[in-house]
Amino acid sequence: MQSKEITVSVGLIVYNHEKYLRQAIESILMQEVNFKYEIIVGDDKSTDNSRKIILEYKEKYPDKFVLKFKEQNVGGTKNFYDVFMESKGKYIATLEGDDYWIDNKKLQKTVNFLEDNSTYLGVSHVIEARDFEGNYMSRHPNSSKIVGKEATINLFLEGYYFSAVATVFRNIFLDRTQDYAIYYKAHKFVGDLTLCLLLLDKGKIKVLDEVMSVYRFRRVDGESNYNSIRNAIEQYNDHIDILNALDHHFENKYDFTREYLMRSSNIFTYCIKQNKLIDFYTVFKKVPYKSKVIFCGYFPLQTLKFLFRKLITK
Questions:
Q1: Other CB atoms within 10 Å distance of the CB of residue 117
Q2: CA angle (261 as vertex; 255, 263 as ends), nearest 5
Q3: Which pTM does this prediction carry?
């Protein structure tokens, strides 16, 4: 029998997701659970028919949907943050309007785990990236270091990531004495890295070896998602800004050197090929001094190793 109290708040953020939104909502409504849940929909002033679709579902399920319509566009992270602050559930699950769940027991499985394992702050799972036609592209995470095991802050900083949007976590936002505004202040569009670190700073995350949801990969003109509106250099700039903001927020508690090096190395190669080294340098100036010094030694060394391997394999 269901309790009157809300066990899970499902945060669904929407921005011009008319083409995908019904599939996202239906994937929530198909969940088979023995508890009460709410769906908090944050629409970031969509200009398509997204709001019309949301209102249709609200009329059909008035007790299940809570609507938060923005009067001006605030960006994905502030939209999610406001949804989090409205969440009454013991746990929070998240979904973006262009993605969807494929396991009708996702909520029940994750809640069961958290109810039975009080030492974990959250539980995540494997997600699949699929294209517009639903064809499989890749899965994340795929490392045996964390799949089926637990994610910790140390592993995360070594590059063993899990999906933030796939994670069901204890509702840390119920504690109003804590300030989590860094979630949206770090960046207007990108929140995965910030949310993962906010959670891992408080506890460990179990990563189930099950595929329960789909990330719809989009990188085409005319779409409103992050990969479509921000090019590679802009994304590099965004992530350096996020790392700098997190370093300040955590008061140098964690070493983000690897993150700076990885992102700088990847974009440096791209900028060489595209003859955009000036663009690289403009962003690289914001990288902390320690990471700059290491990068200046690291990248030439890696290049020499690569060339040496090429020579000996000829």
A1: 12
A2: 110
A3: 0.90
